[in-house]
Amino acid sequence: SRLSERVVESLRAVTGKDGVSVGSAVREQHGRDESVHSCRPPDVVVWPRSVEEVSALAKVCHRHRLPIIPFGTGTGLEGGVGAVKGGVSFDLRKMESILDLHQEDFDVTVEPGVTRTALNSYLRDSGLWFPVDPGADASLCGMAATSASGTNAVRYGTMRENVLNLEVVLADGTVFHTAGKGRRPRITDLASHFCGAVSDSPPLPFQRKTSAGYNLTNLFVGSEGTLGILTKTTLRLYGIPEAMVSAVCSFPSVQTAVDSTVQILQCGIPIARIEFLDDVMIDACNRYKYMLLKGNVECDPLFLPPDARLAGRFWFGGGFSEEITKANSGSDFNWARDPETRGRLWKARHDAWYAALALRPGCKAYSTDVCVPLSRLPRIIVETKEDLTTNNLTGPIAGHVGDGNFHCLMVLDPDDPAEVQRVHEFTDRLARRALALDGTCTGEHGVGLGKRGLLREELGPQAMGVMERLKASLDPINLMNPGKVL
């Protein structure tokens, strides 16, 4: 570590001896995530146990002008935890309390060490759940920091729509709440939500209102640790669906798969997930350990009937989905109605990363993350597959067809400089292709280290200037996760 013993002792005075480490193995563990970016270890790692300790540690870092890098579970995909300028990694996993569950208000407040699966396990007997599912068992504050989403976004939205309040520690140790301390914007019309559940359209989330001041909560959602440390988040919860079914179906082309998706959504059939796998990805899953039907779309119609009177409507919606797919040349439509079969189907989807890696044992993987308007999805996927073939690259495609977000799981040999360069050039072309189609360079993984230039192209100099001034206002000496996003 490059830090003086005096600084390390100042940190230990806050957390105790066991709450600070300068060991090289520990620092290297905190200098990398699941991305292909090289390890950038911090100078020291600290484990605060409370917001008071986080604030006190931040004040030490501010006094000594040490960069602060928040660390959750290390499951990020864009190098967001790398300490590019050294400094202190704040490992928040010891703050793992679920603090305030309000079942009648459908919200809960958690500390940053609480993960998605831990929260849903805690909620199991309450009849509620938190549906945002990025695949990895990520920390919920980390998911807020990257504005994560995943397979359920087509119905439940991303973290940006599901975070109600945040407790934030700024670079100088100041602690504040983005929506006011203890505030949980109230449910204004519970009845209309349930009425929505029986209408032709999928029910919207509970309507919670506030028009008080700037939306500071969404300023910090997606900020990737560059504005402050998230030490609590209040989340929107949902009732557990009475019934769920899944289905897998084959299509002759991307266009017919997208046409079916659009028509299902236009008909108001309540769909939780609509996932796309191309022929290469299906083959990879089949070879790995799952036998899926040949084809390139799998969909999960998810219905939320509030009582048994909707049983007939439930099955009607499912049958209507099948009719739409058949009208668009879909074939091999098979339902998975029991929990075990559904679990196997979605386990296969979530294991797509490992199935792709198994195509080339010993290699590494990198996931692209562009998102385009749904109407542009067939064009960009066709052009992307042509690009992969032309440049002799392995990149099976999996995506969330319901919201236009897809991933090429690039499998490459990191010891082959020529292949690494081809992958880098391909990912740049793909991102610019998405921007040219009015899309974004990142749908859910964040900007991190590698997409800063693309973000500037996407937003333009004026918007970037506003972001830079906001950053300078909250963090004038650039201590919070420097080198990321901007």
Task: Using brief descriptors, characterize the structure shown.
486 residues; alpha+beta; nine-stranded antiparallel β-sheet; five-stranded antiparallel β-sheet
Mean pLDDT figure: 87
Rg calc: 23 Å
**Count of separate DSSP helical elements:** 17
- Largest pleated sheet: 9 strands, antiparallel
Low-confidence stretches: 187-207, 293-317
Percentage of residues in DSSP E strands: 15-25%
Question: What does this molecule look like?
Answer:
The protein has 486 residues and is an alpha+beta fold. Helices cover 37% and strands 18% of the residues. It contains 17 helices and 20 strands. The protein has helices spanning 5-15, 24-29, 51-63, 116-123, 140-146, 153-156, 159-162, 190-197, 216-220, 254-266, 279-288, 311-327, 339-350, 352-357, 377-390, 417-436, 452-474; strands at residues 20-21, 44-46, 68-71, 88-91, 98-102, 107-110, 128-129, 163-169, 175-177, 229-236, 238-239, 243-244, 246-250, 271-277, 297-303, 331-336, 364-367, 370-371, 397-400, 405-412. Strands 12, 13, 14, 15, 16, 17, 18, 19 and 20 form a 9-stranded antiparallel beta sheet that branches. Helix 1 packs antiparallel against helix 3, helix 10 runs antiparallel to helix 12 and helix 15 packs antiparallel against helix 16. The radius of gyration is 23 Å and the shape is globular.
